[in-house]
Design goal:
The complex is a heterodimer. By secondary structure, chain A is mostly helical. Chain A has helices at 4-24, 27-44, 52-71, 88-102, 106-117, 122-128, 135-161. In chain A, helix 2 crosses helix 3 (52-71) and helix 5 packs across helix 7. Chain A starts with a helix and ends with a helix. By secondary structure, chain B is mainly β. Chain B folds into three domains: 30-53 and 72-90 and 401-509, Sandwich (Immunoglobulin-like); 116-249, no CATH class; 261-397, no CATH class. Classes of the chains: A mainly alpha, B mainly beta. Chains A and B meet through helix 1, helix 2, helix 3, helix 4 and helix 5 of A and helix 1 and helix 2 of B.
Amino acid sequence: MTDPWRELYDREYPRLVRALVAIGRDPAGAEDAAQEAFVKAHRTGLDHIAKPAAWLLVVGSREVFRRRRRSRRERELWASLPERHDAVDTAADRADLLAALGELPDRQRTVVVARYFYGLSYDEIASHFDIKGGTVGATLHQAIERLRKIQLAGRLARGAMR
Amino acid sequence: MNDERRDDEILGRALGRAIEAIDLNETPYEKSRMAAAPRRSPFGIWPIAGAVVAIALAVAIGSWLNAAREGVEPGPVAASPTPVSSPQVSTPLSYPPVASPSATPSAAPTAVRRDVIYLGRAGLPPVAVPGPKFADADMTPERRIASRVTALRAYRQTAAPAGLTNYLWNNSFQGGVAVTIAADLASVDLLLPSPFTAGDRFEAVAILQQLVYTATEEPGIRRVLLTENGGQVLTVGGIRADKPLARDDVLGYSGRGPVGTDKGITWAGNDAIPHVVAQLASVMVDGTTVRLTFRGSSGGSVVDLPSFSVSLEENDDTKPVGGKTAAALNGGKYALQVAFQWNGGGSSGGVAGTTIYDQTPLRAIIGANPYSFIELDDARPWRAYMPDKTQLVVEIGGDPQATSDRIAVSAPKPGDRVAGQPQVAYDVRLAGSARVFEANVSWRVRDASGKVVATSHFLATLGSSALWGTFDKGFSIPASVHGGVTLEVYEVSPKDGSDQGLVAIPLTVP
């Protein structure tokens, strides 16, 4: 007999932590929040959670923001993110993108992660994150638009230093 | 898909890959907090009978009281023999111990006494004591209110019963009160040479509580507009009393209890037994909490209770309670009505007659079979639970720090000191009542820095039903923790996992 919790954990935990790192910009806090989200899911029971992946993301992201509010420390942690041993340019691009993501307001950041990392539909995002259905697309577009500008500025800055 | 949208999609996917590439130290399932948590036990699903309405009346004053209370003399808490880590065992019917009757009705009184004023307690609701001697019977309501408020100045602290404080004695108020009345609103202007002094928020709230409760003691008056020196806004320790205040506004709880028949509790009991009498077996009043126990009895033996309903209603305290009984008695500002189904002819022989208590917040109990009217001073939170099918416990109030709209903790009490010398962890008794989703009560302990040092959950006897469930379990504090800790008891929202109805109880660990 397989344990549905283990199955859910093995499948969702890594993805959830990555999403929460991207949303909260704090790796240690993200792990904490992900653990807490699973504990809460466990207490609530799988019978009562229609879409566990999205539920965990909603609860986890709220946990991330709650922790940050409580500790009142907004740390710049992208510098300490572990480097990947890929091609230098790719790694630099990725770091740029993540850094740019970190510049977005909380709400935009969460919606972007839900859409492009979790692959949730506009409707799913609207219902899980309590956003009006019609505004999900606009929020996403604004967010991506800003990402592009910030990323471009980063590239230009790096180009100037070479 | 238009170009713009496609560009967004491309960048979005690149971002998704970037997130995917974030390096992690993955915690394996075996080491996850979830795996360490006790297994969830199978338990009947209670439908959420009309989502419990979050109390919107959260008055700022309530939240001020949620900080650690000053001056509470902590008593030791017996370590519990209950193993903390065994909630998977089917939950036995357990309930908080019900104190033996401690309330003693005064000797043959004929009416609720109105010559009272209220003294304060830091972090707890105020308590009435006999106050002014009214000069003559035909004084006006205005003059009676002025007399009571003036008596607050004159009531010496040395005369106060243990545990009560007159925060107005030796304060700025030296007498001089002007009172006007319009409908249920009294305007009370105080002559204050200098503003009231309050040592902290608790004292400031206590001063306001004393003034509001005392001024609204007059029958027919439900709200008071407090001003100073000819109509200026009264300010106490930074709190501006710039609007009329009712007792419910300064209760000190996170909200008032549900009011109205539609918010009451109805319960289908055993109506197959004829001639069951619901006897009021015990009455406990301690200034904060009232606990009434009704027991089913028929022909001298203990039997199941019939169906019943319980609801709290606003009460017109200017009128004798003649509509309920023939007794000429003015009741409280609110009346909690307990009505049992009478199955069979003749008299139910249950609670009959009127008993006057005059012990805050219980004024009187009027029995008019098959009803009981519990006359109360205010609408503090209340709840009802059944330890077994033969008993109904109606509980009104509770320590504000340990009471929310869905959780009431009776042990430990705020300020308690945890006792014992454990090797691994203190096991402390955790008892009370709750009305939460699927009976699932969560708790966690925070150390002085706010870090969670222990957390788990257990099941109460009932879930989201009209009646509350009870629990008598334990919680643990790691032996390595010292100093001030906070026990938080709460419901995890099934909708979004947020904490609901949280109570935070400060404790001390040696």
